[in-house]
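Example record used in the benchmark description.
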Amino acid sequence: MELGMRVLRVHSLPVLYVKNLLMKGIGMATLPWFFKRAYKIYLKDEKFDWIIMPTPPITLIDVVKYIKKRSGAKLYMVLRDIHPQSSASLGEIRYQWMVNYLYRRSDLGYRLSDIVGCMSPANIKFIQQEHKIPNSTRCTVLYNWTNFQPYKTEDSSELRKKYHLEGKFLVLFGGNLGLGQCVENIADLAAHYLNNDNVRFVIIGKGVKKDALQDMAKEQDLTNMIFLDFMPREDYLRFVKSADLGLISIHGNNAAPTCPSKALSYMSLKIPILALINKNNDYGQILADKAKAGFWAVASDKERVYNLFDMIYSDAQLRKNMGENGYNFLCENLTTDKVYAEMIKQMSE
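Model output (structure tokens):
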């Protein structure tokens, strides 16, 4: 029991942070076997009203179909990554037969769903154009969320001193460094501001492209980039809190609109955001128009990227206002309680 709920954890082959695409594919392909086996052993006599399934992995859709048939449950699909379009457009899936297979699996998922909760209106438009969504499936906006706990401000001067960052303008990129993040955007920005001794780019996280980003920094002698690995959570939170700007980078080749989850941690700690995004992505409007928490630019528009960075860098009051706006938007729309209430409302309807 966890928090009053029965929880079944299923062991499987590794699927996260796997650099070998073949091994990752095998891990994803075998997930249904592990989950269906666990269901038959532990849950076969249970009745369910709703199944809540995030994407990916769409390879589990046969398990969902099986449980729906046995229990009569409805399916709420929480759309967080649009596959296989995202992976295929980034070159993660090299074989067309695999793209076609995964496309059919996602089609089945949409047909089985009673509700699809999408992160933005552009997400809804995209899947409706790409797939034949049945009339029985309701597509609705469901923002990403965080289990938000207000963080008490603590002095970070000692932490900055430890990493020789006293008095510097600290640009933070925290989280996954994968194909979808386009680490070249980060390196390009650091290279542009290399001669500004007041600016430092701090990278905290891991992923399959972290080594590539470190190689770029070494080859271009980007001495304004600092890479940090593990640190105690309290130190990490103090570090994030002390940042002046949170950076988001989305690969320009990504065919699907996406709303990066790392923005939630920036908002929760009142950090203004600069988002470098792909075309046809409405995340920029959500960030700038609804939340008023930062600026956005298509990553390939370098002049706009540099101009927006300069605006944020040169205006401390603007940074403070954006940080407060993002924090307020998160509290009003993106907490677990808010999204839970919205999901229950949608299910009831």
